[in-house]
């Protein structure tokens, strides 16, 4: 196998960028979870803070936000696995090439 350094660089960069973008999307959703909850609590007419929180957490909007956050986390984790797997595969191939060259010198 002939390893093209430029090709490897571009593939790893693309996978790393994808991972970074998905991680950033997850972070935004995670960081805004409390703001979404607070906004929903402010809309509530419930008599106590605890009752407002329960109502807000039971709302469709909050449930959808939590689901979107979980989906974003899953996508970011899969992108990380893809990136790490590509790096490991490229390192393995590089090692195989080095071994093959060493064997040819013997």
Describe the structure concisely.
This protein is mostly helical and 106 residues long. It has 4 helices and no strands.
Q: Which strand-content bin applies to the residues?
A: under 5%
Mass-distribution shape: rod-shaped
Q: Whole-Å distance between the termini?
A: 20 Å
Radius of gyration: 23 Å
**Count of individual helical segments:** 4
Biggest sheet, in brief? none
Helix content: over 70%
N-to-C series of helices and strands: HHHH
Query: What structural class do the secondary elements suggest?
Result: mainly alpha
Q: What is the number of beta strands?
A: 0
Integer average pLDDT: 94
pLDDT < 50 stretches: none
What does this structure look like?
It is built from 4 helices and no strands. By secondary structure, it is mainly α. The radius of gyration is 23 Å and the shape is rod-shaped. The longest helix has about 45 residues, at about 60-105. It has helices at about 5-30, 35-45, 50-60, 60-105. The model has no long low-confidence stretch (mean pLDDT about 95).
List keywords for this structure.
106 residues, mainly alpha, 4 helices, 89% helix, 0% strand, rod-shaped
Blueprint (SSEs and pairs):
Layout: H1 5-31, H2 33-43, H3 49-58, H4 60-105
Helix pairs in contact: 1-4, 2-3, 2-4
């Amino acid at each position: 196998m002939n390893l093209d350094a430029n090709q490897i660089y571009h593939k790893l960069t693309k996978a790393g960028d994808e991972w970074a973008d998905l991680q950033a999307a997850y972070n935004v959703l995670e960081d805004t979870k409390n703001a979404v909850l607070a906004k929903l609590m402010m809309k509530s007419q419930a008599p106590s803070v605890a009752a407002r929180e329960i109502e807000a957490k039971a709302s469709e909007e909050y449930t959808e936000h939590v689901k979107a956050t979980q989906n974003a986390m899953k996508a970011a984790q899969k992108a990380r696995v893809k990136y790490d797997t590509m790096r490991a595969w490229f390192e393995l191939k590089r090692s195989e090439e080095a071994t093959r060259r060493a064997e040819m010198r013997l």
